[in-house]
C-alpha cells in the first residue's frame, strides 16, 4: 500500500515537472524558462511547468494578481511581470515563491498595494524593480506600508525610478536594513527630509539624479551624512545658485570622493551662472553673507535715524506745549466752565420736568 502511495506521489511530481507548456507561452525545459510575452493574457496562466525558474509574463492585460496566481511555482527565482497594466497586488501574492530572488513589476499602474504584498518565504527576495510602476501618491503611501510589513530584510536592490515622486513618506526605507542599491532617479523630488535614509547603514549606491532638487538644506545634508559610506549620484538637478546655497556647496566640496557624477553638479539658475560647477559656485556666492551683513547694517542705520527724527519731533512738540502752557490752561478752564454751565442747565430742566408744581410755575412765568 505504501509502495502504491509513493508511486502516485512520484507520478504526480513527475507530471508537474514535465507538464505541458500553457497555450500562448513558450517553454524551455533545458533553460528552466517560460515566456508569455505580449499574448493579451488577462490573468496569470495555469499549468506552468514546475521546473520553471525564470518566468517572464510581460506585455499583457493583467489587472490584478493574488495568492492564487502562482500556485505550484516554488522553484521560480526570477519573475518578470513588467508592462502588464497591473493595478492591484494583494497581500501574500508571492508568499508561495519561496525561492524568489528577483521580482520585476516595472511599467505597470499600481494603484493598490496591500500590506505584505511582497512577502516571500525565507525572505529570499533580493531585487525589486518598481520603475514606472506607481500610479499616484496614494500608491506611494501603500508602498511605504508594504515595505514595512512585507519582511524585506534581505532586499538588496530597490528601483523606484521614473515614478514622478515629489516627496517620500517618513522612514519609508527604515526596515530595509540590507539594502545596497537604491534607485530614485528621474523623479520630481524637491527635498530630502523625514529621516528618509535612516537605517540604511549598508547602502552602497544612492541615485538621486534627474530630480527637482534646487538645493539641499541642512536637514538633507544630515540625511546624506547618515550614510557616509554610500556613493551618490546627484547630477542633472536644477540647482539654484543664489544666497543660501553656500552650506550645500561646502558639503559638495568636502564630499567629492563619494559623488560619482560631480562634474554634472552645475547651476541651472540664475542665467548668469548657468553651467557653473557647484565646486566653484561656493566661492562665487560666499559674498552673499557680506552683502546681507551690509544690508542688515544699512537697515539698522535707517531704524536708528528714524528713531532720532521721531525723538526730535517729540521734543519740539513738548517744547511748543511748554511755551503755550498758560493759554492751554486758560482754554481748559474755559471748557470746564462751559461744560459746567451746560450741565447745570440740564439739571435744572430735569428738576422742573420731574415736579408738576414747578412745571406749572414755569409755564405761568413763560406766559
Automatic annotation (TrEMBL):
Gene3D superfamilies: Ribonuclease Inhibitor. One of its GO terms (biological process) is negative regulation of canonical Wnt signaling pathway. InterPro entries: Cys-rich_flank_reg_C (IPR000483), Leu-rich_rpt (IPR001611), Leu-rich_rpt_typical-subtyp (IPR003591), LRR_dom_sf (IPR032675), LRRNT (IPR000372), Wnt_signaling_inhibitor (IPR052286). The keyword Membrane applies. The chain crosses the membrane at residues 303-323. The keyword Hydrolase does not apply. This is Trophoblast glycoprotein a. The lineage of its organism: Eukaryota, Metazoa, Chordata, Craniata, Vertebrata.
